[in-house]
Amino acid sequence: MLRVFVLHGPNLNLLGQREPEVYGSDTLDSIGAALDALAASLGATLSHRQSNHEGQLIDWLHEARAGADGVVLNPGGLTHTSVALRDAITACERPVVEVHISNVYARETFRKTSLVAPVCIGSVSGFGKVSYALGLRGLIDYLNRS
Ligand code: CA2
To answer: Tens digit of pLDDT for each residue in 36-54?
Structure first.
């Protein structure tokens, strides 16, 4: 079985509770349950984690070096600001897929820049909870071809 970390960054614990017009009405738990079902059909097991703290996300990426075959990552607002998170993606030496619920290219100018995209194997943005499913499919296909 392939082992995949699904990491969610700052404020994503609020999913389903606020701003449904931007982020939809699904909660992290419901997204996780749907992803678990998909992962089982694709031969993968998932470890779901969310943190509002940059350093915790970095520690989990370091853990992925030994503990995961790949990572699905929604870095939240850190996408647009964090050199440290980008460096941790490089350091983990595992394929990482960047995922966004909203279409970051259709929003404010500052969201059009991703510091992490160049060190990820791919990015998915704008499909709501389906962004995670597409990201997971892409990651598992990449791992099966590697
Ligand atoms: O679209 C995405 O998935 C984002 O990563 C979400 C981030 C945002 O800063 C990125 O530009 C795009 C924000 C996450 C905030 O999540 C909330 C969820 C519900 C209510 C309030 C915030």
So the answer is: 999 999 999 999 999 999 9
Ligand 1, atom nearest to 12 Cα: 16
- How would residue 24 be classed by pLDDT, with cut points 50, 70 and 90? confident
Give the position, in ligand 1's atom list, of the atom nearest the Cα of 19. 20
Burial 36-58 (b: 16+ CB within 10 A, else e): eebbeebebebebebbeebeebb
Q: Is 132 a catalytic residue?
A: no
Rounded to two decimals, the pTM is 0.97
CA 20 to ligand 1 center in whole angstroms = 11
Both tokens of residue 125? Answer: 């943005």
Domains along the chain? Answer: 2-145 (3.40.50.9100)
* Catalytic residue of the set 48, 100, 132, 142: 100
